[in-house]
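Your task
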Amino acid sequence: MELIGQGGLGKVYKAYDTNLGRDVVIKEINGHETEEADMLLKINNDRIPKIYDLFFTDDKTCIVMEYMEGDSLREYLLKKNVDYKEKRDIICQIAEILSYLHTLENPFIYGDLKPENVIIGNGKVKLIDFGSSKKMYLRYDKLYTTEIFSAPEQYEGEAYFQSDIYAFGKLMIYILTRVSLDKKGDVSFKDLRNLDIDFRDKLIIINCLKWDYSKRYVSAVSLKKALKHEFISVENVLRLVYIILIVYGIILCGLSLILSVVMGDENFITKYNFFRFGSICFLSAVLMDINYNTDFDDRHIYYELDVKLSSDF
């Protein structure tokens, strides 16, 4: 029906199966190569295309597989006005797929995570093009790489679970900001300073984008846990303290006034400490409010609850 993709390995066509009455994809690979088909046969996940058939021509391999309806991630972000919550939902769904691949009985590395290989349709995120997928922890004479997104070790012919983690970090920046960060070496807070990214997500990105693969998250399983991990911010803690002070101030001052009326003693307020403590609470809340609004620009400091957010997660 149409050519929908083309690269160094071959071409991808959208086709129509006249026998079964459905759209399919035919991936035409240069040479006789079955590694991608072998991997897809081991997968049973509705976020990953199913393989229907495999045949050879004189000098090419043709894989017939499921057609994944939807827009590429790049197209989707250009077309839609996507808010931060939905962007993060997309990120978490991608992490789920990678986690699935990394925990198969015979796990493998996806190897080419980029906006063009992520499809979004009907609210679901799907992953296509497994031509760069490899068995874990092997050295290869040649690995196909994508500028910006591929991990540094892939250029040296090495592929690890952490190679997917690196690409995920780059993709996470792109999803949240539509910026493709090209940086050699470890990524730091300074590199992300001007990007509109939540602080906790910056922490995750920095852990993904360590130049040394051994310092990144061990696999997408650890990454998925980090993405779902709850944080307490200084901002929220201060807001809670502020509310508590106001409530205590009202209760203590109100109690002292009520008791002074009930006891018929006008000096009750000054004789006992209820009013004094209530006033201190009110004063503390006012000072906190002034300080919060004028001198708390660095309030985005997050503390983790139970689990350390680091590469040995």
User: Anything to note?
Assistant: The chain has three domains: 2-66, 71-228, 233-294. The longest helix spans residues 234-263. The longest strand covers residues 22-30. Residues 292-313 have pLDDT under 50 and may be disordered.
